[in-house]
Amino acid sequence: MRRLIAMLSLCLLLAACPQKRLVAPPAELPALRLSPASLGQELAVQQRLVFRYGQHERELDALLEVDADEVRLLVQAMGQSGVRLQWDGRELIQQRAPWLPASVRGERVLDDLQFSLWPLESIRAVLPGDWQVEERDGVRELRHGGRAWLSRTRVDATTLQLRNHAEGYDLRIESVAGGDGSP
Q1: Phi–psi pair at 15, nearest 5 degrees
Q2: pLDDT tens digit string along 101-120?
Q3: Alpha helices in 17-173 (DSSP H)
Q4: Quick one: 154 exposed, middle or buried, by C-beta within 10 A (0-12, 13-18, 19+)?
Q5: For the whole model, what pTM was predicted?
Q6: What is the annotated signal peptide range for this record (predicted)?
Q7: Residue 90 phi, psi dihedral angles, 5° rounding
């Protein structure tokens, strides 16, 4: 019975995730691939992720650890590991559950994470010349052609709201425990 419930839950998660697009997104976001050390601090935090794509919304749990050598991220749904990422600044290693849609890419997860948490100057240093990153009043935007394609808003001390305008999804990141408790 537990397996059946887990399988049904995973099917719901799968249905909520963006499927392969028939049309390319209006803008392809640049890869950041920042070094773990460029965060400038160690971080260990448990997070609740609320992912919204279209009318679908799903909650996931995540464990994030960052030190000078490596970024480690584990994302779970219903107690099942969906994706595990390790990034040492050179190589991204991902372990993915077979039920995870191909459209959920570890590279995009890493870029969203780094855009949300890494210092502005570290991001600015790796952007192609026609992209800009700005931050004002708790709102960070990745801009190209006069338009924000990715934005992150600091809702409060433990909550961030990420909006990917290029791929059409929102991600709310609530830190619930660990480290200093802030994302």
Answers
A1: -65, -25
A2: 777 788 999 999 999 999 99
A3: 106-117, 120-126
A4: middle
A5: 0.81
A6: 1-23
A7: -125, -40
The two three-digit tokens of residue 173, written as one number: 């990141």
The amino acid sitting at 123 is I
Q: Using one digit for the tens of pLDDT, what is the confidence trace for 151-165?
A: 999 999 999 999 999
Q: Which residues contact 4 (CB under 8 A, 6 or more apart)?
A: none
- What pLDDT was estimated at residue 183? 58
Q: How far apart are CA 43 and CA 45, in angstroms?
A: 6
Q: At the topology level of CATH, where does 32-177 sit?
A: outer membrane lipoprotein receptor (LolB), chain A (2.50.20)
Backbone φ, ψ for residue 6 (5° rounding):
-60, -45
